[in-house]
Every structure is written in C-alpha cells, then in structure tokens.
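re: ur question from the group chat, yeah i did fold both. here u go
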Amino acid sequence: MGGKGKKGIASLEKQQARQVKEQQKKKEEKKKGKKEDRSQQQKAIYVVNEATQELLGQIKPNNYYTLFELASKINTPLSLARRAVRELEAMGKLKQISKSGNSRLFVAI
C-alpha cells in the first residue's frame, strides 16, 4: 500500500538543470524584447506649431470633434493635441461648445 517512491538523485539533478536553462532563456528573451520595444516605440516628435498646421488641414467647417479624435487624426499624444487646440481656439478656428468632466466637444468654424 505504499506510494510510488521518491525520484532518484540523477533525475532531480537533470530536472534542476533544465529549469536553470529555461530561466536563462527567459531572461535573454526579455532583454531582446525590451531592446526591440524601445526601437518600435519611437514616434514622430511634433512641435505645437506643426501640430496646429496639420490640424488646420484635417478639420472641416461645421463638424464636431473631441480631443481624442483630433489627436488620432494627426497621430500625436493628447497633451500635444490639447495645446494645438488651445492655439486654434485663440486663432478663432475652433470653438468649444460642450464640456462634461474630462471630455470636451469642439466645432470647427
């Protein structure tokens, strides 16, 4: 009625060696993955003036826009789109018509 018994020393050593190799492979893959991710994550850097000019070309009169829509149109972060929208508001090209929490709605003039 006894159990199967314990594993032998040789098999335990082999198992431990396999685990060490797997851990080393995972570490190497992580290092390679991080280097590749950094190179892929580089985005184009826009200056506010460039983003403003590009937004002017993308917006159409009498259409409604949110900040997220405008940022995705010119493929920039929201912070840069927010600055560009402020400039367009100062120029009189956009007008804020609604604000609810963090979302704002604009109309092109």
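okk and heres the other one u asked abt
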Amino acid sequence: MKLIIATIRPERLEAVKEALAAVEVFRLTVVHCQGFGRQKGQTELHRGREVALKLTQKLELQIAVNEDFVEPTVRAIQEAGRTGPEGAVGDGKIFILPLEDCVRIRTGERGPEAV
C-alpha cells in the first residue's frame, strides 16, 4: 500500500478527479493549503497598496492505494494537473510514501482490504 500526496493548483481539481475516476480511483481527501516554491508566492492589492502574500493557494490530495494503482494514479494526476502541454511552474508535486497499515473505522478491516 502507498499514500500518494499531491499538491495541485485549485483550478485543476475537477480535471484531476475526472482523470482519477478514469483509472478507477474514487477515494481521496482534499485539503486546502498554502505554500510556495519557484513561484515565490504572489502579491495582492490591499487598500491601494500592493502587498506580498508570499504564499500561493494550493490543494493537497491524499490518496491511499494498493500497489497496482500507484502508477495509474500518478500518471492521472500528472497529466490532468499539468497546465498546458508543457506544464508551468507551480503545477505542483506528487509524493509517494509507504503506507504501513490502514483501518476502516466502520468494519475494523485492516490493510489492503480497508483501502
């Protein structure tokens, strides 16, 4: 089992959800977050003055998958999360982490069956 954590642009969420559904991944958690990388954040006009916010709005997707679904999930996020054919700075990142265990609260099932 793996935990896939992807940080994407908020406007790409619907496209990513559709791409995930196409590879039969239907369970995910979406977390609103802020951050910056190469974009160095953003500026905003506040009371007539430009203010550096330094943080950009992003969405973090958390998806637990069994081994067979890792590569299709990563490809779906990468293709649907990219802006334009070449992508752009700020499109996000995908992290793949080992998932030691999973427990379904309702039934008590553990491991791959609970994912």
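fwiw on the second one: The longest helix spans residues 70-81. The CA atoms of residues 27 and 58 lie 19 Å apart. idk if thats what u expected
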